[in-house]
Predict the 3D structure of the following.
Amino acid sequence: MIRIPKELELDWSYVEKKITNELSNYALSHGIENLIVCLSGGIDSSLTAYLTSKAVGKKRVIGLLLPDKHVTPEEDLKDARYIVKSLGIKSMEMEISDIVEEVIKKYPLARKNKNAFGNVRARVRPILAYAVANCSNGMVVGTSNKTEFLLGYFTKYGDGAADILPIADLYKTQVRKLAEYLGIPKRIILKKSSPRLLPNQFAEEELGINFETADRILFWFEKGLSKKEIERKTGASKKLIDYILERVERNEHKRKMPPIIKIS
């Protein structure tokens, strides 16, 4: 059984119904026929696919598998295919390394900058996702969770590009718990989280903190507790709390539409 901090426990039946009802109503109100989910083989996209399928039915969900042979492990591809098969949803598989390479050829300087190179990979995927959406009266369903969303651990106009974000109010540990509730295989739930934009890239190592600690700090921060109170509640160091909250503030621009310079 997946164990999470008690303050992060929820009524998982309610959470499932709330998300699926909101997804269904949103698609209906906007006249959307198909919902597109980019499947990476990881927990966030797998959970999103499960919820989307429950919301509108398997015939209206398109799972996009967009691996890059230079960074996508075979294990992830197998797990993404498993999700497609187990849910019975429609799917498309497109290897993207050739597209990424063509973009880099146009601006070779990006090859020497790992963030630029990785973000090209991240931004190629929504180009294809929105092409599919445009051709199928569809909308793109985002897969960001609350922890990574608050910390800015996503690519602006990359994996952050979506029409609706069904799990972005669930912390990473809550995502794992809801996935267990819905019967997603443990191997996917417990897999080390990675955006797969660079070789051997893992989220917790790159962030320098485990998700459970980050989730507890963020939870109490959102409840309005002071840094001192968060320190007492979580046992985390002041340095770590400062680091987490500084990331939240620094990446606020990624969670908002661009500012409009008003003339009138």
